[in-house]
Specification:
Blueprint (H helix, E strand, L loop, with lengths): L6 E2 L10 H4 L55 E2 L15 H10 L8 H13 L3 H14 L4 H13 L3 H14 L4 H13 L3 H14 L4 H12 L4 H14 L4 H13 L3 H14 L4 H13 L7
């Protein structure tokens, strides 16, 4: 029986607000926006986050594209860049798009931590992670206590398959700002890919505690639990992921695979068909239906 498709893609960093604002206020997450902003010194709730750290669901300012896949891999899916996703994510740029963007974009230059980060944000949207990394490394030298710069470094290093270094920067971001839900999510994904499920689950559960609206964190936690054959515990997280984002095709597929593991064939077929309704031709869902029909003695789907 197939494992969960995969974890969701990493959540990309967002452009920084002016550094002068960073020292005076934080902003509530999307589900609490509209409430008054509390000065940092008076912050009471762990749900408050810097406005420039929100995931791509916030449309108030240009954001980095989360170049990660929330797609399906064998077994449950999680949310780290090549394994994670967030509702209403921007489309992943094609190689042609990246080539055109690179030819039209000036080479990165360094001026201030703010300008370095802003340029790095643009480079990430173009898939130019190595160039973005150069600017972020300069920015962190000048502002070593900025959690978002460490978060951006972790993201770029992860995209470049430099997982050990990425782990270091995600952990540093959390040390500076323990309520950084996205850093907990991405760190959990990296640890999960290393097969350390209990440690991964600590960070994924923390991400959910800080940002219960984060569908990718629920999908990722479900994936990690499924990899330990804890299917009864995984299912509620997959269900919450699809409640939060009904178009979350990978979570539907992971839920279907988990139902199959429990022998709940009818429910599995329903979820596979839902996934295909969202994304026709989605191979993990087609393969899942083929498995079901083969087990029932029917002809496999073409």
């Amino acid at each position: 029986m197939a494992e969960p498709i995969a974890h969701s893609p990493d959540i990309a960093p967002r452009p920084l607000e002016p550094i002068s604002r960073r020292s005076s206020e934080k902003r509530l997450p999307p589900h609490l926006q509209g409430a008054s902003v509390t000065p940092i010194g008076q912050r009471m709730a762990a749900t408050e986050r810097p406005s420039w750290t929100r995931a791509l669901t916030v449309g108030s300012c240009p954001a980095l594209v989360a170049i990660a896949f929330i797609g399906c891999a064998p077994g449950p899916q999680t949310t780290e860049s090549a394994d994670n996703q967030i509702p209403a994510q921007a489309p992943v740029p094609t190689e042609t798009d990246r080539a055109e963007s690179a030819s039209q974009s000036p080479e990165p230059t360094s001026e201030t931590p703010q300008s370095d980060y802003s340029q790095a944000s643009e480079l990430v949207t173009q898939g130019r992670y190595q160039d973005a990394l150069v600017l972020l490394e300069q920015a962190v030298k000048e502002e070593p206590e900025n959690e978002e710069i460490h978060y951006g470094l972790g993201y770029c290093l992860s995209r470049l398959n430099r997982s050990k270094e990425a782990l270091t920067h995600y952990r540093r971001a959390i040390e500076i700002f323990p309520e950084h839900a996205e850093a907990h999510n991405n760190l959990g994904n990296l640890i999960m890919r290393q097969g350390q499920q209990p440690q991964a689950q600590v960070h994924l559960m923390k991400a959910i505690e800080l940002a219960p609206e984060l569908a990718s964190a629920h999908n990722n936690l479900g994936t990690s639990l499924s990899r330990e054959a804890k299917f009864a515990q995984a299912i509620p997280h997959y269900l919450q992921a699809v409640r939060l984002d009904p178009q979350y095709v990978e979570a539907h597929c992971n839920l279907a695979n988990t139902y199959l593991r429990q022998g709940r064939t009818q429910e599995a077929v329903r979820e596979f068909n839902t996934a295909l309704g969202i994304r026709p031709g989605f191979k993990p869902a087609l393969k899942g239906l083929q498995r079901v029909r083969s087990q029932q003695g029917a002809q496999p789907l073409p």
